[in-house]
TrEMBL record, chain A:
A GO-annotated cellular component: nuclear origin of replication recognition complex
InterPro entries given in the database record: ORC3, ORC3_ins, ORC3_N, ORC_WH_C
Annotated PANTHER family: ORIGIN RECOGNITION COMPLEX SUBUNIT 3
Keywords, comma-separated and alphabetical: DNA replication, DNA-binding, Nucleus, Phosphoprotein
Full protein name: Origin recognition complex subunit 3
Origin recognition complex subunit 3 winged helix C-terminal domain sequence ranges: 600-712
Principal subcellular localization: nucleus
Organism: Albula glossodonta
Automatic annotation (TrEMBL), chain B:
ORC5 lid domain location: 213-280
Assigned keywords, A-Z: ATP-binding, DNA replication, Nucleotide-binding, Nucleus
Protein name per UniProt: Origin recognition complex subunit 5
Record-stated family: Belongs to the ORC5 family.
GO annotation terms (biological process): DNA replication initiation
Example of a GO MF term: DNA replication origin binding
Natural source organism: Albula glossodonta (roundjaw bonefish)
C-alpha cells in the first residue's frame, strides 16, 4: 500500500466539497470517470446518512419519549409545589433521570444531541450538557454551567486563560446565587428567553417556569467529590431554581450509589431509563444498510466480517461501524473504476451504453466476466472479445440480471433465517448477518450446518412449521420479481395443504397412531425378560423405519425440499454472478489497515525497512544487511537489535560510526574512516534519544554508561 | 411546655415566638442567648457549634438571628468554591451591594480584613454582627490562614463581630498544628425518641386530627427509629407514607379510634419502605406511584442497586480480567501462572513466602502498564494483534470499566516511564491515554516527560 491511501480518510473528514473531490480524483486511477464516481459516492453517502439517522431516531424514540414525559411531569410539579401538604413536608429532592446507555461510549453523543434538541424544542430552553473532562473541580463545573446557560462570560476569581481583564465588565461570580438572580429576571419576562439562545419565543410556548436541565454525559468519569458538592449546592436552591439532572451512565445503575454517599443520594429523586442494546441497534443498521437491494454498494463477506469483528471485539460502537462502512464504500468508488455502473438502474444502463473503449477493456479483464466468456459458445466468445458494441449490450443484460439476483437474494435469505433462527443450537447462526456472511463466502447448501438445519426442519412439529411458513409468506409478499411471486404462491399452497390436512385427516392420523402405540404397549407388558424385550424393541425400530409416512410427514418433506430448491436457486454466492465486482467491495485487508491500525508494527517496519515508507531506491537492501544510506535512527535501531538487555553506549557509537563512515568511503584519508567526529557523535545522540522517545531504550541506574533495552528478541 | 426564654436585651414577645419555634432545643437556645448578650454588647469572638446531622444547629442559629433581627450573614462553605465568594457574600450583606467591588480578583484573607476595616469605619456596628459559616469543616481545605483568621476576626477587624461555625465534626479535628484562638464549643446532642415524636407530631395534616397524626408518628418511629434517627429523613418518610395510613379512613373501613386496625394496615408497608425508600433504591416518586397502582404489578420496578449484567466487548472483558489479575497477584507469580514452561518452583519456599493474609484484604496494588498487556496477551486464547484499538480500549476501560466495575485499578506513580517501556511506543496514542489515566486516578503524570 502506498502512502496515497493515507490521505483518503482525511479527504472524507474535510467537508469542503471542491477539495474532497480533488483528493478523490487525484489518487484514483482513472481520471475521466472519477468525478462521476465521486458524485455517485456522495449521493449514496447522503442517502445512507439520512437512513441511519432515521434508524437512530426510531430506536431512541421510546426511551426519549418516556424521558420527556418524566421531565414534563417533574416540571409541572415544580409549579404546584407550594400548596400541597405532602410536598411541603417532603424533603425537597432534585428530580433525576438516570439514563443507562451501555458501554458504547462513542454512540452516546448522538443520543444526547437528539435528547437536548428535543428538550429545547418542547420543554425548556435551558438545557446544559457537561462532560467530565471539562470539570475537574466544582468551580469549573459551575462556570461551565453558568456560561452555557447565561450565554455570557462568567469571570472567575483566578482567571487563568482569557485576557479579558482590561474590559471593564460587570463581574459575575460563578455561584448559584448569580444563576438564581439571572433566572428570576429571565422567567419574569413573559418571553423567557436567554440571550444566548437563538430561538424566538413566538415559535413555542414554554411553561411559566421552565426547568433548568443539567445533563452529565459521562457520570462515571466525574470525580465523586465534584458531583457531591454540586448536588449539595444545588439542593440548597431547590425552592428557587427548578433544577433537573440527567445522568448518562455507561455501566450499571448501581454506579450512582457507589459514587454518591447516602446523604447525597437522599437529595435526589432518581428514575431509571434503559436504552436498547447496541447489538440490537447494529442488527437494525445492518438490516437497513446491508440486507437490502436499495443500496447497490455491497461489502463482501470478509469486509463485513472485519466490520462486525471490530464491533464485537473492540467497542460495541454502532457509529464506528457506520464509519467503517462508509469508508469501505469510499474505497470502493475510489479504487474500482467500473463502480460508475454502481448506480440506479436507468443510469447504469445508460452508462453502460456509453462505455469507452478503455472501460470495455476493463470489463473484459474482470475475472467474473472472463468466467462468463468461457462458458459461452466459441462464436460468442470471439464476438465478446472483439466487438465493443456487443460487450456493451451484454453488460446491460448482466447488470439487469445482477439487479434481479439481489432482489431475489434478500427475501430468500430472510426466509431461510426465519426458518433456521428458531432451531435448537442455531446451526446457521443466531443473527441474520452470520447467515449472510456464510452465503456470501460459499455455497451455503454445501455446508454441514445447512445439512443439520434441514434435518432439524424435517423434524419440526406442524404448528411451528406452519407459523414459520406464514412468517416467510409475510416476508415474500412485498417482492415484485417473478421468482419471488412464484415462491410466494408455492408457500401459500403448502400452508393451505397443511390446513386441509388439519381439517380432514386429523381423526385418521390419531386413530392410526393410537393403534400402533397400544399394540406395542400390549406386547411389552406380556414379555418381561430381557432377551424378549430386546427383540421386540428391535422389531419396533424396524417397523418404524419401514413404516409408511403419514401425509403430514410427506407434505413436510415436500415443503422442506422446496425451500432447499429455493436456496439453491437464489442464495448463490455473488462471485458466481458476472460483473459482481461493480457492486462488491472485497479488499478487507485495506479496510483492516485503516480501521484497526497496528502502530507498533508500522514503527518497526519503518525502522527496519525504511524503503517501505520512503520509497527511495538507495534504501532498498536485502534482509538483515544494514544500509549505510538509511536514516540515522534506522541504523541505530538495527544495531541495537543485536545487543542484549544492556547496551554499552560507547560500543554502540563505535558500531554506528563504522556503518556510517562506510557510506563516505570516498573520503581522502583512510585514517578518518571510523573515527568519531563531532557531527557523527551528535547524530548518534539524536538517534538514541529518538529511540528513547519511541520507547525502545531507557537509561538505567545499574550502569551509567549503559542503556536498557525495552523490547525482547528481534535479532 | 418549656420555660420561656428570657433575656433583658430582647422583647419578651419575640422571645416567646422563638421559644415556640424551637421545640426541644431550649437549653441550647438559652446558652446561645447568654453568649450573645444584649445586641449592643460585644460577644465572644467565635463560637463553634457541632452536632450530628439534623440536630437543629443551623435551624436554631438562624431562627434566633432572624427572629431577634440581628445583623447576620449565613454562608454555606460548600457553595464557596472560591474564597472571593465567601468574602463577597459577607461584605455585601453588611455593607451594601457595592462594597465588594473593590475586592481584588483573587482576594487573600488580608485583603478581606483590610476592606472590612475600611468599610466598618464608615459604617460601624451598633449591634453585634454575626457571620455564620455552615459546613465549616470545608474551611480546612481552603487556605491555611482562613480558619485561624475567622476565629479571631473580631480582634483583626476591630469591630463588634462574632463568627459562628457550624459543623458535624468535633473541634479536635479542626485545631491547626500551629495553634489558634480557641472558640467556645457548643454541642447539640441528638434528639431522643420522645423529642423526635414531639417535633414530628407538630406538622400534622390539616384535614386530620393532631391525635391521629401523633399516633401515626408513633407507629412510624416504632419501625424506623432503630435504623434512622435523622429528623429530616423521618419527616420525609412520614410524608410519603401518610396517604397509605389514611387509606382505611378514606374508605370508611376504620375510624380514627381503631389504632390497632390502622397499625396492621400500615406496618408491613412501612417495613417495605425501610428496605427500599430509605435506602433510596426506589425514589419517592416511584414509591408514590407504587402506592397508587396496586402493589402486585409493580414488582418489576427497576431498583437502583439491581445488579444487572453489563455486556462488554470481547477484548475489554479480557483487559478487565488482566487488570484484575495484575492488581491482585504479586508480580513474581506471573511466571508461574501465565507461562507454559516456567520451570520448577520450590514448593516450600514459595509457600513460606506466601503470607497468610489474602491479597484481597490488602486491596488492589499498582502495576505497570506493560505487565497488564503481557498478562492480557497470555490470557486471551487466540493471538491478538497489538492494534491501536486494543490500546485505545485501555482508555475506555479506565473510563467506564476500571473505575466503576468494582475493580479499582490503581496505576503506579512512575506510569510515565513504564508507559514508555511498554510495547506501545506511539506517543500520539499514549499521550491521550495517559491523560485519561490521570483523569481516572489522579495519577501525577507530567506530559513533558513524554
Amino acid at each position: 500500500m502506498t502512502t496515497t491511501s493515507v490521505s483518503k480518510p482525511s479527504a472524507k473528514v474535510k467537508k469542503r466539497n471542491l477539495n474532497t473531490e480533488d483528493y478523490f480524483t487525484n489518487g484514483s486511477e482513472d481520471c475521466e470517470n472519477s468525478k462521476e464516481r465521486f458524485r455517485l459516492c456522495q449521493d449514496m453517502l447522503d442517502k445512507m446518512k439520512s437512513e441511519t439517522e432515521l434508524v437512530q431516531d426510531e430506536l431512541n424514540k421510546m426511551i426519549l419519549d418516556s424521558l420527556l414525559e418524566f421531565i414534563r411531569k417533574s416540571a409541572t410539579s415544580f409549579l404546584s409545589r407550594e400548596d400541597d401538604w405532602a410536598s411541603h413536608m417532603r424533603a425537597s429532592e432534585i428530580p433525576t433521570a438516570a439514563l443507562v446507555l451501555g458501554v458504547n461510549v462513542n454512540d452516546h453523543d448522538m443520543t444526547f444531541q437528539s435528547l437536548s434538541d428535543q428538550l429545547q424544542q418542547s420543554v425548556t430552553p435551558f438545557v446544559v450538557s457537561v462532560q467530565a473532562k471539562e470539570c475537574t473541580v466544582v468551580r469549573h463545573l459551575l462556570q461551565k454551567v453558568l456560561q452555557r446557560l447565561m450565554g455570557m462570560s462568567v469571570s472567575m476569581d483566578e482567571d487563568e486563560e482569557e485576557g479579558s481583564t482590561d474590559v471593564p465588565q460587570k463581574r459575575v461570580h460563578c455561584s448559584l446565587r448569580a444563576l438564581c438572580d439571572w433566572y428570576k429576571t429571565v422567567s419574569k419576562k413573559p418571553s423567557g428567553i436567554s440571550p444566548g439562545k437563538k430561538r424566538s419565543s413566538s415559535e413555542m410556548e414554554f411553561p411559566a417556569r421552565p426547568p433548568i436541565i443539567l445533563i452529565f454525559k459521562d457520570l462515571e468519569a466525574f470525580s465523586p467529590r465534584v458531583l457531591q458538592d454540586l448536588i449539595l449546592i444545588c439542593s440548597q436552591y431547590t425552592q428557587e431554581l427548578p433544577l433537573l439532572f440527567i445522568f448518562g451512565i455507561a455501566t450499571s445503575p448501581s454506579t450512582i450509589q457507589r459514587m454518591l454517599s447516602h446523604s447525597v443520594t437522599s437529595l435526589l429523586c432518581i428514575k431509571l431509563f434503559q436504552s436498547s442494546s447496541c447489538t440490537q441497534h447494529l442488527a437494525t443498521v445492518i438490516d437497513k444498510l446491508v440486507l437490502t437491494s436499495q443500496f447497490l454498494f455491497k461489502p463482501s463477506g470478509k469486509v463485513l466480517q472485519v466490520l462486525v469483528g471490530l464491533f464485537l471485539y473492540h467497542d460495541f460502537s454502532v457509529c464506528n461501524f457506520i464509519k467503517g462502512f462508509k469508508l469501505s464504500m469510499l474505497e470502493h468508488f475510489h479504487s474500482q473504476p467500473l463502480s460508475v455502473l454502481c448506480c440506479k438502474k436507468e443510469d447504469a444502463l445508460a452508462r453502460a451504453e456509453r462505455l469507452s473503449h478503455q472501460e470495455v477493456e476493463r470489463v473484459r479483464q474482470l475475472p467474473s466476466f472472463m468466467r462468463y466468456v468461457e462458458e459461452q459458445e466459441p462464436q460468442e466468445q470471439v464476438e465478446l472479445l472483439t466487438n465493443d458494441e456487443h460487450v456493451k449490450e451484454v453488460c446491460q443484460k448482466l447488470l439487469k440480471s445482477l439487479r434481479k439476483y439481489h432482489k431475489n437474494y434478500f427475501p430468500i435469505l430472510r426466509c431461510l433465517h426465519e426458518l433456521t433462527a428458531s432451531l435448537p443450537k442455531y446451526p446457521l447462526g443466531k443473527q441474520i448477518r452470520e447467515l449472510h456472511v456464510t452465503c456470501l463466502e460459499r455455497k451455503v447448501w454445501e455446508t454441514e450446518e445447512y445439512e443439520t438445519a434441514l434435518q432439524l426442519l424435517r423434524l419440526l412439529a406442524k404448528d411451528e412449521l406452519v407459523s414459520v411458513l406464514h412468517k416467510c409468506i409475510e416476508i415474500l409478499k412485498p417482492g415484485k420479481t417473478k421468482k419471488i411471486r412464484e415462491a410466494l404462491r408455492q408457500l401459500q399452497d403448502f400452508t393451505a395443504k397443511f390446513q386441509q390436512l388439519d381439517d380432514s385427516s386429523a381423526v385418521e392420523i390419531n386413530a392410526e397412531g393410537g393403534e400402533g402405540d397400544t399394540a406395542c404397549g400390549h406386547s411389552l407388558q406380556k414379555k418381561t425378560d430381557l432377551f424378549h424385550l430386546q427383540k421386540t424393541l428391535l422389531q419396533m425400530k424396524e417397523s418404524r423405519r419401514t413404516k409408511k409416512r403419514s401425509p403430514f410427514e410427506l407434505l413436510r418433506n415436500q415443503a422442506v425440499e422446496y425451500i432447499d430448491s429455493l436456496v439453491r436457486m437464489h442464495l448463490t454466492p455473488p462471485e458466481s454472478q458476472p460483473l459482481h465486482e461493480v457492486c462488491y467491495y472485497t479488499s478487507s485487508g485495506t479496510l483492516r489497515r485503516h480501521l484497526n491500525a497496528t502502530p507498533r508494527t508500522s514503527i518497526q517496519t519503518a525502522l527496519s525497512h525504511p524503503y517501505y515508507y520512503l520509497q527511495n531506491k538507495a534504501l532498498r537492501s536485502e534482509a538483515g544487511a544494514i544500509s549505510s544510506a538509511a536514516p540515522d535512527i534506522c541504523i541505530a535501531y538495527k544495531l541495537h537489535l543485536e545487543c542484549g538487555r544492556l547496551i554499552n553506549l560507547y560500543d554502540w557509537l563505535e558500531a554506528y560510526t563504522t556503518v556510517v563512515s562506510a557510506a563516505e568511503s570516498d573520503s581522502p584519508d583512510p585514517s578518518e574512516k571510523g573515527k568519531v567526529d563531532e557531527v557523527r557523535h551528535a547524530r548518534f545522540i539524536r538517534a538514541v534519544s529518538e529511540l528513547e522517545f519511541l520507547g525502545f531504550v531507557k537509561s538505567t541506574k545499574q550502569k551509567t554508561d549503559h542503556v536498557a533495552r525495552l523490547t525482547w528478541g528481534g535479532c | 411546655m418549656s420555660v420561656l426564654l428570657q433575656h433583658p436585651g430582647y422583647a419578651d414577645e419575640r422571645l416567646r415566638l422563638v421559644t415556640e419555634r424551637l421545640p426541644c432545643r431550649e437549653a441550647q437556645a438559652r446558652t446561645m442567648l447568654a453568649l450573645m448578650g444584649e445586641p449592643e454588647q460585644y460577644s465572644y469572638p467565635s463560637i463553634f457549634i457541632y452536632g450530628h446531622r439534623a440536630t437543629g444547629k443551623s435551624y436554631v442559629t438562624q431562627t434566633l438571628l432572624k427572629e431577634l433581627e440581628l445583623p447576620h450573614v449565613v454562608v454555606s462553605c460548600v457553595e464557596c468554591v472560591s474564597a472571593g465568594l465567601l468574602f463577597e457574600q459577607v461584605l455585601m450583606t453588611f455593607f451594601g451591594s457595592s462594597s465588594s467591588a473593590s475586592l481584588p480578583r483573587s482576594p487573600s484573607f488580608s485583603d478581606f480584613v483590610r476592606l472590612y476595616r475600611q468599610l466598618c469605619t464608615q459604617l460601624p456596628a451598633n449591634q453585634t454582627r454575626y457571620i455564620v459559616l455552615d459546613k465549616a469543616e470545608l474551611l480546612r481545605d481552603m487556605d491555611a490562614n482562613f480558619l485561624p483568621g475567622f476565629l479571631r476576626l473580631q480582634e483583626l477587624v476591630d469591630d463588634n463581630v462574632t463568627v459562628i461555625f457550624l459543623s458535624e465534626i468535633v473541634w479536635d479535628k479542626f485545631r491547626p498544628n500551629t495553634g489558634c484562638f480557641e472558640p467556645l464549643l457548643l454541642h447539640f446532642p441528638n434528639y431522643s425518641k420522645v423529642e423526635l415524636q414531639e417535633i414530628l407530631a407538630q406538622d400534622c395534616h390539616p384535614s386530620y386530627s393532631p391525635e391521629l397524626y401523633s399516633s401515626y408518628i408513633n407507629i412510624l418511629l416504632g419501625v424506623f427509629y432503630s435504623v434512622c434517627r435523622d429528623l429530616r429523613e423521618l419527616r420525609h418518610l412520614a410524608a410519603l407514607n401518610f396517604v397509605k395510613f389514611c387509606e382505611p379512613l378514606e374508605n370508611g373501613e376504620a375510624k380514627e379510634k381503631d389504632t390497632h386496625k390502622l397499625w396492621r394496615n400500615i406496618e408491613p408497608h412501612l417495613k417495605r419502605a425501610m428496605q427500599t425508600v430509605y435506602l433510596r433504591e426506589v425514589s419517592s416518586v416511584q414509591w408514590e406511584q407504587q402506592q397508587q397502582t396496586e402493589e402486585r404489578e409493580t414488582a418489576d420496578m427497576r431498583v437502583l442497586s439491581a445488579h444487572d449484567h453489563v455486556e462488554l466487548p470481547f477484548y475489554s472483558k479480557f483487559l478487565l480480567i488482566a487488570a484484575y489479575l495484575a492488581s491482585y497477584n504479586p508480580a513474581r507469580t506471573d511466571r508461574r501462572f501465565f507461562l507454559k514452561h516456567h520451570g520448577k518452583i520450590k514448593k516450600t519456599n514459595f509457600l513460606k513466602k506466601h503470607e497468610k493474609t489474602s491479597n484481597h484484604l490488602l486491596g488492589p496494588k499498582p502495576f505497570p502498564l506493560d505487565r497488564l498487556l503481557a498478562i492480557f496477551y497470555s490470557v486471551v486464547d487466540s493471538r491478538v494483534a497489538p492494534t491501536a484499538s486494543v490500546f485505545s480500549q485501555d482508555k475506555r476501560l479506565l473510563f467506564s470499566g476500571g473505575a466503576s466495575i468494582s475493580l479499582p485499578v490503581v496505576l503506579s506513580e512512575p506510569v510515565s516511564t513504564q508507559c514508555l517501556g511498554s510495547p506501545t511506543p506511539d506517543p500520539q496514542r499514549t499521550l491521550p491515554y495517559l491523560s485519561a489515566l490521570q483523569r481516572a486516578h489522579q495519577v501525577k503524570v507530567n506530559p513533558c516527560e513524554m
